[in-house]
Amino acid sequence: MKRSDKHNRFRECITAFARPKTNRFFLPSVFLFFFNLLAFPAFSAPQDIKNDQNILREEIKALSTAKLRSIEPILEQLEKRGAIYLPLFQALLNGQLYFKKSNQDIVKLGKDQKGKRVEEDLFSNAKRPIESISEYKKIRTNNRLRVKLREIISRLELESQDFETRKSAIFNMIGKFQKEDIDFLQKLKKQEENQSILELIEFAIALNDVKHSPILDTRIEALEQISGNLDPRVKNTLNSILKSDLLLTNPSDSQILRPLVETELGRIAKKERFYSVLEKFSFGLSLGSILLLAALGLAITFGVMGVINMAHGELIMLGAYTSFVVQSLMPQQVGLALIISIPIAFFVAGSFGALIQYFVIRHLRGRPLETLLATFGVSLVLQQLARTIFSPLNRQVLSPDWMTGSLVINPIFSLTYNRLYIFFFALFIFTILQITIKKTSLGLKVRAVSQNREMARALGIQTNRIDALTFALGSGIAGLSGVALSQLVNVGPNLGQAYLVDSFLVVVFGGVGNLIGTLVGSFSLGILNKFLEPELGAVLSKVAILIFLILFIQRRPEGLFPQKARTLS
Amino acid sequence: MTSIIYQEDSDLRKSLRTTIFLLLGIVAYALICNLLLSPNSFFYVSVYSITLLGKYLCYALLALSVDLLWGYCGILSLGQGIFFGLGGYAMGMYLMRQVGERGVYGDPILPDFMVFLDWKELPWFWLGFDEFWFACLMILLVPGLLSFVFGWLAFRSRVAGVYFSIITQALTYAFMLAFFRNEMGFGGNNGLTDFKEILGFSLRSDETKITLFALSAIFLALGYAGSLVLVKSRFGKVVLAIRDSEERVRSLGFNTDKYKIFLFVYSAILAAMAGALYVPQVGIINPSEFSPLNSIEIVVWVLIGGKGTLYGAIIGAFFVNYAKTKFTGVFPDQWLFFLGSIFILATVFLPNGIVGLVKYLGQKANFLSESR
Question: What is the nearest CA distance from A435 to chain B, expressed in angstroms?
C-alpha cells in the first residue's frame, strides 16, 4: 500500500474534517476541507484516483462523521469525480450506507438471498457476512438530502455509457428538468445515436418548451408534439400551465394558447376515462379467470355429478402445495418446475379426489346434506394435514422470469404477465374440459350417468367407475387451479377456504350442470366485483356481491343458464 | 329415523320430565357442590367449571335450534351462527353501554373503541341500548326480523336443500366480513369486550356467574319444553310431513312456506337467546362467531347427538364441547383432525348419532332377550 505525498496530504485534510463530533469549530475545518479539495485536482491526474480504490475509500470517510447539514457540500464535491461514486449515492439514498465504528470505513450493508445482512464493498462486488449490526452505524439522510441525491444520481446516469441506464435516467427526469439541464439535454441530443433515446430527449425538451418557452409558435409546436401522450407528467405540466401566468413575450397570445391547452387536457381526460374503464375490465377478467379456474372443478363434481364437495377448496390448496414442493425440489429451474407441477398437481389432487369419493361420498349417495357435512370433515382434516406438514405459515412460490413484469400498452394502462398467462390458462382448461364432456366417450358416459343413473346402468355403463373417474377429473382440475393460484397469492392452509364459497356461488349463478354457464358466471362476477370495488371498498363490494347473488339465486334458483330437465326433481 | 320420533310420541310427558329433571339436577348438583362444600372436597365444583358448564348450556340451546330445523324440517342452516352472534352483539352492546366512565378512555357515553376511532357521537343504532329492556327486545327482534325476511325470500322462491345450506353459509360469511370492518360500528376485529357489570351486578363476582349459569339452565329447559310441545303439536306433525315430502303436503292444501318461515324464526330466536346468555359468561363477542366454521360446528353437535330428537342435540353439544375442552388442552393443534374425523365417521357410520346408537343397542338387547 504505497501512497504518494499528495495522497497523504489529502488524507490528513479528511481526517481533520472527520474529527469526532466534540469539535466545536467544525465549520472552519469544513472550509479547510473544501479549500483542499478545490486545490487538489490541480496536483493530480484524475486517472490515478479512479484506479486506486484505497484513495476512493479514504475520500468518502468524511461522510462517517459529517453532520446532516454538512453532507450536502461533500456530496457535491464527490459528484464531480464522475460515475465512480454512483453506487455510493444509491446506497445512501436507499439507507444502506453504514460506517464501521472501529475504523470509520464506509460500507454498504445489503441482504443476501436468505435475508441475512452482508457487508458489500462499494467499488467491487465483494461481499462478506457481518457479525453484528451493532458494529456499524448508519449514515443518516433527510428529505432534502434525498432530493439532492436523486438529482445527482440522475445527472450521473445521463452520461452513463450503458444504454438502459441512460434511457431510464432521462425518463425519470422528464418534467423535472431545470434550465441548465435542458441545455445539457440539447447537447446530449446532438451526441445521441439511439433512436428511442432521441425520442425521449425530444419529448423532454418539448415538455419543457410547452411550459417555459416565451414564443407562442414554439409552444404550439411543442404542444402538438406531446399531443396524445398519456404520460401523467404531460397532464401535470399542462395543468400547471393553466394555473400560472403564461409568461409569453406577447401577452395577447395567451388567448390563443389557453384554449389549445384546454382541448388537449380534455382529450387526455377522455382517454384516461376510457383506459380506466378498460383497466377495471381487464382486472375483472383476471379475477374472473381465477374464479373460473376455482369453479371449473366444482362445475364437474357439483354441476354434473350433483355431489356437494366442501373439500373442493382443499383440493385447490393441494395443487398449490404441489407446485410449492416441486419448486423446492428443483430451486434452480423455476420455470420448468412450474410446468412440471401442472400434471403432478392434476394427478395429486385427482387421486385425493378419488380417495374421497371411494371412502366417503360413495356411501352417501342420495343424501346431499350428509355428503356436505362429511366432505366438510374431509376439508378440516386436509387443512390440518397441511398445517402439520408445511406449518401454518404461508409459503411463497416464485414466479419464473417470463411470468414477471408487465405488458405496457401505454403509460396508464398495462397488463401483468402472470395474470395474462392465468387468463389464457383458464380458457385453455375450460376448452379442454368442454371438449372432454361434449366429444369424448367418457364425457358421453358422464352425462348419461348424471341424467339417468338407472338407465345408464341398464345400458351397460359401469356407473361406479364413471363416478370415480368424474370425481377424480373434477378434483384434478381443482389441483390445476391451485398451481395457477400459487403464482398470484401465497400458499397457506387456508388458501382453499377463500375460494370455496365463491366457486359454489359461481356454479349456482351460472346454472348447475352447465360449463358455459360457469364461464359466463365467473367472468361477469369478476367484472362486477372490480367495478364495484372502487365505489364501495374491497370488503363491502364482496358483501354486496354476496347479497346480490343470494337475491339472484332466490329469484332464479336454476341459475343464468338453466338445464333442461327431463325428470321432475 | 322416523321410527324414533313416533316411538317418542307416546311418552312426550315422560321424556319432557326426564330431561328437565336431569337439567335441573345438574344445576342443583353444581350449586350445592359449589356453595356448601369446602374447596378441598373431592366433589367441589369450582366457579370456573360452572362458567364452563354455563357455556355448554348456551351451546346446547343453540344446538336445539339447529336440530329443530334440520331434524324436524330437513332445513340445514349453515348460518345459525348469525342469529347467535346477533343476539350476542345485542347483549354486548348493552353491556358496553353499562361500562360508562370506567372504560380505558373514561368517556361517559362512547365505548372505548369509538373513542379510539375518534368518533364524536354514538351511531343511531347504538341508541337505547343503555336500557336492559330495550336490549332484550332487540335480542329477540333483530334476529327474528332477519330470519323472517330471509326465510320469506328463500322459502317463497322454493330454495331448499343444499342450496339453502350454501346460501346461509354465504350469508354468515358476508356477516363476518361486514363485522370485521371498523366502520360498521361494532368494534371491528376485536368485537365488544371489557364488560363490567350487568343490571348493576359485577360480572366478575361468583354470585353473578352462578346466577347466569342457573339462568342458562332455566332458559335451556324452557327452550326444550317449548320446542317439544311445538313438535308434538299439530304444527309439528305438518313440519315433519314437510320434511318427508313437501310436495305431498302442499298438494294436501297446506301452505308449507308459512310453516317453514315460522319454524325458522322460532329457531333463530332460540339461537339469539343462546347468544345473549353466552356473552356475559365469556365476556367477549367478536366477528369470529359469524365464521362459517363456527356455524358448521353446531351442526356437528346435532349430528353427533342424534338429529330429530331434541335431547340428542343437547347431549351432542355437551359431548362435543366437553371433548373439545379436554382435547385442546392436551393436543391444542390436533383438534381439527378430531373434528373432521367426527364429521366423516358420524355421517357415514352413525347417521342417528349417539341417541340412535343407544336405541339400536337397546333394541338389539331386547330382541336377543326375547328370542331366548
Answer: 28
Residues in chain A: 569
DSSP helix/strand/coil, A236? helix
Lookup: cell for B275: 347468544
B317-321: list long-range contacts, CB under 8 Å, 24+ apart: B317/B56, B317/B59, B317/B60, B317/B62, B317/B63, B318/B56, B318/B59, B318/B60, B319/B354, B321/B55, B321/B56, B321/B59
Do the Cβ atoms of A381 and B344 come within 8 Å? yes
B189 touches chain A (CB under 8 A): no
Which is it for strands A136-138 and A97-100: parallel, antiparallel or unpaired? antiparallel
Cα distances from B186 to residues A476, B81, B111, B178, in angstroms, run 42, 17, 10, 10
Res B232 pLDDT > 70? yes
Chain B's closest residue to A362, CA to CA, is B348
Report the predicted TM-score, pTM, of the whole model to 2 decimal places: 0.73
Pairwise CB contact (< 8 Å): B343 & A308:
no
Nearest residue on chain B to A386, alpha-carbon basis: B337
What per-residue confidence (pLDDT) applies to B67? 94
Residue A12 has pLDDT above 50, yes or no: no
Name the least confident of A178-192, A415-429, B204-218: A178-192
A 10 A CB-CB count for B351 gives 15
Amino acid identity of residue B170, one-letter, is A
Torsion A378-A381-A387-A390 (CA) sign: negative
Q: Write the DSSP string, A108-149.
A: EEEE-TTS-EEEE-SSS--EEE-S-GGGEEEPP--HHHHHHH
Which residues of chain B are within 8 Å of residue A550 when distances are taken between CB atoms?
A: 167, 170-171
pLDDT confidence bin for A248, thresholds 50/70/90: low
Is A369's CB within 8 Å of B76's CB? yes
Q: How remote is the C-alpha of A545 from its chain's centroid? A: 27
Q: What does the H/E/C string look like for A475-488?
A: HHHHHHHHHHHHCC
Q: With an 8 Å Cβ cutoff, are B159 and A372 in contact?
A: no
Question: Taking CB atoms and an 8 Å limit, are B161 and A368 in contact across chains?
Answer: yes
Read off φ and ψ for residue B175, nearest 5 degrees: -60, -40
d(CA A411, CA B73): 60
Residues of B in contact with A549 (CB under 8 A): 170
| A387-439 per-position pLDDT tens digit | 889 888 888 888 888 888 888 877 778 888 888 999 999 999 999 999 998 89
Element (H, E) at A106: strand A106-111
Q: How far apart are CA A322 and CA A302, in angstroms?
A: 24
Phi, psi angles (nearest 5°) of residue A568? -75, 140
Q: Pick from A481, A122, A152: which is nearest to A319 by CA?
A: A481
Q: CB within 8 A of B369, min separation 6: which ones?
A: none
- Note whether ipTM > 0.90 here: no
CB A360 within 8 A of CB A352: no
| Residues A41, A313: Cα–Cα separation, whole Å | 70
